[in-house]
Amino acid sequence: MNSILYIVFICSMYLMAYFKLFIDQHQLVVMLLVGIHVAVIMLHRKEINMLSLSLSTLTFKRTSFFIVLQVIFLAVIVTTKQESSQIISLIGMFVCEVVRLRKLPIEVKEQHEVQQLSKKLEEMNGHFLTVRSQRHDFLKHVSALEFLIEHEANHKAKEYFRTLLGEYNTVNQAIKGEDSHISSILLKYKKSAEQTGTDIEYNFNVPVSSLPLKPIHQVQLIANLLENAVEASQSYHDIYHHSALTLKTESHGGIYILEIINNAIFTDKSEIDYMFEKFGTTSKGKDHQGLGTFIISNLVKSYNGRLSFQYIENTINIKIKIPIVKG
């Protein structure tokens, strides 16, 4: 079901319920129930802002249970005039609403994590095949170089060797000191950036794999940061024909510091201030929902970290600091 129709249907049910209560019950009782309803809405503003995303992400089958319960409660309100039954039924509708608002974002997060894991598994397999293919072709490259040297084609041998070394460095920079779940992400986005002409550099004083997060959350954070940065850099490259991206890591005084710097263009400069504060703000264009920045912000907060950013001269600098908790 379309998320807008779903929300309109819910609102219509409440209007019908309140209309019937205004007819059958004392107005003070109805006003008290309306006050409780408003309080519920105010306490769950964040979840309500996410409701449209939750409904558009999840299938109707996974969200219909609450609708069915609320329809049953509404049927009791409409078909009876007994005050206690009507009030209990309306409260039942409230309870369904609260549970739905709290449960659906969790299900969206779980579904996103499963999708991320599936994607990363495919990327890890691709990464493994890349390394295997390089190993498989190593002797062939040595033979080619030997042939060029024997025939005194030194210039061609040097050019061939430079090209070969570049390919090996691309893989080596992504896998050096990293666990497989992170190295596959680094390799993927390095290749993606280079294919579109973006100069990308990884400058790691400490491995990304040592981020003080659970592996699944490491994947989510790094993948979303790099995906946003690569796409923003590509958009910038389309206009100015050059772009750069740098990912840095370091550790100071028990704090893990992750920094990503890239070119980006914001058509609406006012969006920058709210980029990590609310769902729906993105630098990728109107076809994107801004879910990546929302996930990044929530992940950093859940590990008691701090996120700061600057946007100067078409370059955005995002810095994340997360305390290193030693068990």
TrEMBL record:
PROSITE patterns: HIS_KIN (PS50109). InterPro entries: HATPase_C_sf, HATPase_dom, His_kinase_dom, NatK-like_C. It comes from the Bacteria. Residues 220-326 form the Histidine kinase domain. Keywords: ATP-binding, Kinase, Membrane, Nucleotide-binding, Transferase, Transmembrane, Transmembrane helix, Two-component regulatory system. SMART domains: HATPase_c. Gene3D superfamilies: Histidine kinase-like ATPase, C-terminal domain (3.30.565.10). The keyword Cell membrane does not apply. The chain crosses the membrane at residues 6-23, 28-44, 64-80. The keyword GTP-binding does not apply. One of its GO terms (molecular function) is protein histidine kinase activity. Its EC number is 2.7.13.3. This is Sensor histidine kinase.
